[in-house]
Queue: 2 jobs
Job 1
Amino acid sequence: MTFTAAVVGLGYWGPNLARNLAGSGCFELAALCERDPSRLERAGRAYPAARRHADLGSLLDASAPDLVAIATPVASHRELAIQALEAGCHVLVEKPMALDSAEAEEMRAVARAAGRHIFVDHVFLFTPAVREIRRRIQDGDLGELLYIDATRINLGLFQPDVDVIWDLGCHDVSILEFVLGREPASVRCLASSHNPSGFTDVAYVHLEYERGLAAHLHLSWLSPVKVRRMIFTGRRQSLIYDELDPAERIKLYDYGVEFDERDIEARAQMLVRYRKGSILAPALPVDEALAVEMRHIGKVLAGDEEPISPAETGVAVIRVLEAARRSALGGGGPLSPRSSSRG
Ligand SMILES: NC(=O)c1ccc[n+]([C@@H]2O[C@H](COP(=O)([O-])OP(=O)(O)OC[C@H]3O[C@@H](n4cnc5c(N)ncnc54)[C@H](O)[C@@H]3O)[C@@H](O)[C@H]2O)c1
C-alpha cells in the first residue's frame, strides 16, 4: 500500500525525512513546504514530481496528504501539527515533540479526537544498536541493572527556541524509556548557562527508577569533544553503547564485582571478587534508522504494526525534560515527571 506524504521544513533535518520517505516504498513524496524560497528550490530539484508550497495552509488547501512530516523549529510544532491533524492528515513530528507538556498533550488530544496518528521522530529507537540494547536488557543478558551513565556532549548547535535538555536530553530519555520499558519515578537536575540567551547549555540530569536503578545524563553544548556514549552496568554483564564507533557500537563486558554475602567473615572484611571475562561486540545490521522508521510508519498506517513512538511517548519524554528543567530552576531537588504535567 502506498500513502502520500509531505515534508514541512527543509533546513538541516527535513531533507533526510524527504529522502527516506521517497525511498521507503510505502510513501509517495507528494509535496514539499518551506518558507525559505532558496531551500524550497534546492529540495524541489531532487523531487520534481512533488508540489512546492511556502506554507502549510496552501499545501493542505491544494490536497491533504496522508502524512505530514514536520521538521521545523520546535516552537512551531504544535501549530503545524494541529493544522495538519485537523485537515485529516497523520503527522510525523520531529523531536522534541513540543515546547512543554501542555502543548504535547494538546497535540495528542487533537490527534485522538481526529482519529489520526502522531509519530514522534525519536530516531534512535529505530537504530539497530538501540534495538539490540533493548533485546539484551529484556532477555536478562545483563542481569539486574545497577545504574546507567550517559554522556551526550559536543560543541553544540545552539537552538533558537530550546535548551540543551530539550535538544539532546530527549534522545537519552527516549532511549531509556524504550530499552527499560518504564518511566523514572523522580528527576533531578543541575544546570548552567554560559550564553546570552540564558538557555541551559550544560546539564546533569539524574533519573531514579523503582528498585534502586538510577540513570545519570551529562548533556552539554560546550564540550570541545563529541561524545555519544551510554554505559549500562548490570550485575551479570555491562554494555557500552558508543554511537560514534560504527565498527563496534555495542560492547558487552562479561565483567563484574561479586560480594560473598553468605560468608559472614568475607562480608565483614568486604572481600570482593573481580570477574573479568571476555568482551563481545555483536555484529549489527547497517540499516539507516530513518529508513526503518518510515517503513514502520507505512506499516502502522496499513494497520499491520503498532506505533513504536506514538504521541504518548512524545508526551512522556517531554514530561521528564520538563521535570528536569523545573528541578534545575528549584536548585536540583527531586520531582516526579507525572506531577510536571498541567493536563
Ligand atoms: N531526529 C533527529 O535526530 C534530529 C536532528 C536534527 C534536528 N531535528 C529536529 O528537526 C527540527 C528542525 O531542525 P533543523 O536543524 O532542521 O532546523 P533548521 O532551522 O535547519 O530547519 C528548519 C526549516 O524550517 C523552515 N520553517 C520554519 N517554519 C516554517 C513554516 N511554518 N513553514 C514552512 N517552513 C518553515 C525554516 O525556514 C527552515 O528551513 C527540530 O525540531 C530539531 O530538533 C531532529
Note: Residues 146 and 211 are 9 Å apart (CA to CA).
Job 2
Amino acid sequence: MPDSADQMPPGQPPNLRNIDPERIVRQLAAAGVEALYVHAKDNQGNCYYDTQVGHKHSGIGERDLLREFAAASRLHGLAILFYVQLTRDRRGHAEPSYAARNADGQPVIIHPALGRPFNPTLEQAPVMCLAGGGRDYILAIVRELAAGYDTDGFWLDCFGWWGQTVCYCLVCQARYQADHGAEIPPPSVRSGDIWLRYFAWRRRLNTLCLHEIERAIRSVRSSLSVTHNNGAIFAYEDWAMSELDDYVTNECQNQDGFAALGLLCRRNWAVKGEAPFEIELWRFNSKMMGISREYQLRPLAQLQAEMAIVTANGGFVQYYDQIRPDGTLDERSVARMRDAFAIIPPMLPGRVLPAQGWRRCRYASLLWSKTNDVVRAGSKLGRVEDPELEGFATALAESGVLYDLITDRELAGHAPLPMEVIVLPNVETISAREAERLRGFVAAGGGLVATYRTSLGETEDGPLLRFALADLFGADYLEPVSYLYSYQKFAAAEEHPLLDGLPRDWPISSWDRLQLKVALHEGVDGLGRIVLPMRGMHMGYPAQEATEYPPVVCRNYRKGRVVYMASPLGEIYGRYGHDDTRRQIANAVRWAAQGAGPVEIDGPPTIEAVLWQAGDGVHWLHLVNTAGAGPLRARMTAMHAVLPVQGVRVRWRGPLARAQRHPCGTPIPFERSAEGAILALPAIEIHLLLELVPADSTRETT
Ligand SMILES: [Zn+2]
C-alpha cells in the first residue's frame, strides 16, 4: 500500500485509516483460512510495524500492525507468516548504493513510466541489488522481525527482479573482478563461454544471497519456516537455491490454462519430492487480454478447478487478496474465497495431506533439466520456455496417462528410479552420468521415449553432431530435412502398437520444425517414412515424395524398450493440437512401458488425474474436471461454469477388491478385464476422489 504522505499525489485521503487487524483475522477465520500471510515490508518499501531500519507506513501512526495481526491470529487459531519483499522496492533507490545498475550506470527500473496520463498509476519497479548494502538492509529487516514477533515463518518475494538482472553496480563489478579477474560481460555479450561463465557465477551468487537471508531467519529461531517465491522455475536459479526452503512455492496468476497449472504443480513437487508445496492463486484476473491485475474476482468455477488441481497434486493453496485503501477487507472477495475453499476439505481423506506417508504413483516421468534450461535460456537469466516438455505433458494429461517430472539432479543421483518410463523431451544435453543411469534403467526393464535433438547438444568437448544416446536409440543422426513443413506417413501394412489408432497412408503434419534424418543400426526397426511436401503449392501443403528415413525408431534394449521420434511432437502438439500427434505420444509411452499405467482414464481430454498410494496399499485417485473452459491448453480465459462429464471410465491395472467414492463411500461398479478392472464412474463435476483397494493391499489381506 503506497504511503499517502509521500507516494501519492496531494489530495488523497490517508491509506489504512480504518484498518482493524482483529476484525480482519476474525473474517478470515470464519471463511476457512488456516494461515495468514501479512506484508511486513512490501514492494512500496513500506513496513507495517515498529521498525528500527525501514520506512514505517505513516497511515498507521503509532500502531504496530504486525503485533496486532499476530495476536489476533493466535486468538483465532491461525498460523501467521510474514511477507518480505526482497529486491523490488519503490524506496530501494533512495540509498544509491542499494540500486542495481545497468551497464551505463543508471539504476535498474523494470517498468519505466510510459507516460500515459490517464492511467491512474504507472508502476515503476526500482530494483535493489543484494550483493552489497541492499542485502544488509534486508538482513536487518528479517532479523528484527524474527526476533521481535510471534510469527510462524517468512515468505520471501521477488528475488528474481534482481536475480535475473545483469547488475553492473560497483559491488557486483568488484566481486566479479575478484573472482574471475575480468569484467562483467557487456550487454553485447550474451552467449558463448564468457557469458556462460558469468551465468554460472551469477547463479551461485543468487543462491548465496538467498541462503544468507534464510539462515539469518533460522538463526534467530530455528522453528521458523522459510520459502521464496518462484522456486526453481527460472534460469537464474540452480537446484541448490531451493535447498533451505521448507516448501516450494510458485504463483499461478495469468490464466495460463489448467494444463500449465498441473505442470507447475509437478514442477514444484519434483524440486523437493514428498515435501508439500504451495501455489499462489490470485483473486484478480491478471494479465488476461492485456489487462494487468484488474480489481476483479475470478469466477468461482475457475478458482475451484484451480484449487482442486493443486490439492489433487499434493499442494496447498494460497489465495492472494488485497485490502481496500482504507484498510478493510473486500467482503465480496472473502465470500468468494470461502466458497472456493469449500472444494478442498472433501479432497483430504481424514484431513491428512497426501504428502504425509503417501507417495505419488509414478508412471511416465518427463526430464526437467536445469542444464538444458541454461542452454535454452540463451541470453536471458529469466523465464525459460520448454515447449517440448510442456506440449508432451499436455498430450499425456489429455490422454488420461499419468505423468510427472524427474529433475536432472534426481536422474544423476543414486536413488532408485521408480517410474516405468522416462521421457526425454528434446533434451539436447545429456551428461555422461545421466546416460549411464538411463542405460541401466532401460537394461533393467524401464522404458525410454526421446524426441528430436535429444542428446545431440554440445558437451564440454564442443558440438557432438551425433547422439550421445545413439546406442540406446539404435540410430545415428545424419542431418535435418530441408523443409519446415514435412510429414510422417505410416503404411497400411505396418503393424505395431505404436501405430494404434493412427491413420495409414496419411501424411501427419510436422510444421515449422525440421525433422531429422537418422540411420538405423543393424537389426533395429524404423516405422513409417518421412515425407516431403510438393513444391510450388501452398494451399494445404500437399505431401509428395517419401524419403527412406523413418520418423520413428523403436527397439528392445535388454529388458527394456526405447522409442526415438525424429520430430518435436510435444511442441507440435502444444501448438496445433492434432489428435494424431497426441495419440502418437501416448502410444509411445505405453509401448516403452510395456503396458498402460496403473490407471488410465477413458474420458474427455479435460480431466486431470493424480494417483497416490497410501502406506496400506490403498490407492487414491483424484480426478479434476475442467470442462467448461475448453480443452486443457486453452489460455487467457476464465471458466465461469463447469460442465459435468458423464461416462468416464477408469482402467485399473491388477486385481481390484473394492472401489468407492470418497467421502460418501458409494461403491463404484467395475468389471474385470484382462489387465485388471474397468470402473464406470458417476458424473464428475469439478472433482471426484476414488478409494481403490487392490486385492493384495494390507487393508484387504489383514
Ligand atoms: Zn549489483
Note: The pocket of zinc ion is lined by residues 100, 129, 131, 167, 169, 171-172 (CB under 6 Å).
